[in-house]
Every structure is written in structure tokens, then in C-alpha cells.
Amino acid sequence: MNITKQTRDKQCHTVEFNTFTFSGGEEHVRLTDIATDDITSITIQTNLTSSAAIMQLFMAVDAAKRLYGDKPDYHLVIPYFPYARQDRVCVEGEALAAKVMADLINNMGFTTVTIWDAHSDVTPALIDRVRNLPQTHIIEHAPKLSEAITTGAVTLVAPDAGAAKKTINVAKHFNAAVPPVQAEKVRDVATGAILSTSVNGDISGKDVLIVDDICDGGRTFIELAKVLKHQGASTISLYVTHGIFSKGLDVFEDLIETIYTTDSFNCTERFTQSTATTKLVVINV
């Protein structure tokens, strides 16, 4: 978590704080700053990748408002919005988890809430005063990748129907010289297993870039990469805004050469010592 304050002279200063977890599991946050009357805004940026991080955020907001009062604007930047994938009730008796999380955030009364590449249109619709940075904005921070898309050095591949809209938007934004290719997958709804994957286009001899928003264990991309290789793709790369990589990077060995992602799941820290041959490129936004 990073907390900054801006003063009337437009100067930004880091707000120091300390945290610890009580033996009962409760989170504690204390800001070690001195309140002054020239503070115009407070910005908190944090990766909400655990329940502890979520509670630390709520404690930090309460601590800040007790220290600085309600006069400053309060801005929140959370690259990955937690529970975004649970944006519908699939089975009776389930919670609409994305709304539960949005209600908690909204109750904090932020002036603005910035998220990166929302999983679907549902999440931004649930959050008050939200700013959703699209994939295109993030990819712009990777000039070489942007150029490869524009010139047609890579062919974009949408891994499934859900990623089609985002992939088409990337192609249009960068005026891609080569139209994107659509892939399809069939899942077993009972087990979640991928039964088959198909690619609707000619990728023989091409360098391809799979585009999506989230990679968890990576099964979708692994199965797709196998098909792309079988159909003659020269190289396979992957762009995902949010790299959870719960199975590590080794699962992509000999299939995906390079993965582009952000640090929304602390990839820089988690994979510094990785010996995987798949290259991880973290885009700084």
C-alpha cells in the first residue's frame, strides 16, 4: 500500500505508516504523519490481492479521515478489483460478490476510484465515481509491444468469446496491420475442464499475441498455445493485465515464450527468482 498527500502548492508527499496483524487476525494501521491545514487530497494505491490487504485499506481510510478530516479529496487506485470474476449469480444461494465488494468500497466515500481493465462492464457499473483504465491505456506503456501490434509484427488472438471485445478494441486502438484471430473453447460446465479449443484463422508462420485480462492457473492459455503451435505459429506471447499465475510460470514452458502483464498481483516481487524459461515482462503504468 502506498499513501500520498497533495498540498495546496501542488506538492506530493509520501505518508508514512506502519501495519501489523494482531494474533487474533485483526489488521492494524497507524499513519505516522502530522496533519496540516494545507492538504487538498489523499491518494491510496494498493493491490487488493488478499483479505488482509482489503482490511488494511479500510483501516487506512478510517485512520486518514481521523487524522486529516473530511476536507481533503480521497482517491483510491486499486489495479485489480477483488471479486470481479464473481459478477453474476450462477447458482441459487450464491452471493453477488462483486456487488458486495463494490458496496464496501462505495461506503468509504472516495472522490474517485481508479481500477485497471475491469473484467466486465458489471464492475464499473457497481462502483461510484469510477475510472476504468482500459487495456489500450496499459499497453501504451509498453512501446515495443504497441509498435508490434501496429505494424503487424504480431497477430492478436482472442482466447475465447469473452475476450473478443477487448481484443478487437486493442486492434482498433493501435490500427493493427493484421486483423485479430478468434479462438473458441468448450468447457465442461460441471467440472470447469476445457474439453476442446479451436482457432478460427490462419496463424501459420506468424508470431501471435494472446490478449486477455486475467490469468489464474493458465489452463485456457496453455491449451490454446498447444493448438496454435500445432497450426504452425512461429512464436506465442501472452498479454494479461492481471497475472495471478497461481500455478507459477513453469506451466507455460515450451509453449509461451513471453508474458506481458502489470504488477497488480506483485509479479515483480513474486517471480524475481523464477527459473522458468518463459520471460515475464512487467509493464509499469
Computed CA radius of gyration, to the nearest angstrom: 21 Å
Oligomerization state of this entry? single chain
N- and C-termini, Cα separation: 16 Å
In the predicted model, the low-confidence regions spanning at least 5 consecutive residues are none
Give me the CATH architecture of the largest domain, please.
3-Layer(aba) Sandwich
Q: Please, what is the average pLDDT?
A: 94
Q: How would the global form be characterised?
A: elongated
Q: Looking across the biggest beta sheet, what order are the strands in? A: 11-10-9-12-13-14-15
Secondary-structure-based class equals alpha/beta
Biggest sheet overview: 7 strands, mixed
**How helix-rich are the residues, as a percent range?**
25-40%
Number of helices: 8
Count of the separate structural domains: 2
CATH C-level label of the largest domain: Alpha Beta
Protein described:
The chain has 285 residues and is α/β, with parallel strands linked by helices. It has two domains: 2-134, 3-Layer(aba) Sandwich (Rossmann fold); 137-282, Rossmann fold, CATH 3.40.50.2020. The protein contains eight helices and 15 strands. The chain has helices at residues 51-68, 97-106, 122-126, 135-139, 143-151, 161-173, 219-230, 267-270, and strands at 2-7, 12-14, 17-21, 27-31, 39-45, 73-77, 112-116, 130-133, 155-158, 181-187, 194-200, 207-215, 235-243, 258-261, 279-282. A seven-stranded mixed beta sheet has the order 11-10-9-12-13-14-15. A six-stranded mixed beta sheet has the order 2-1-5-6-7-8. The longest helix is centred in the first third of the chain and has 18 residues, at 51-68.
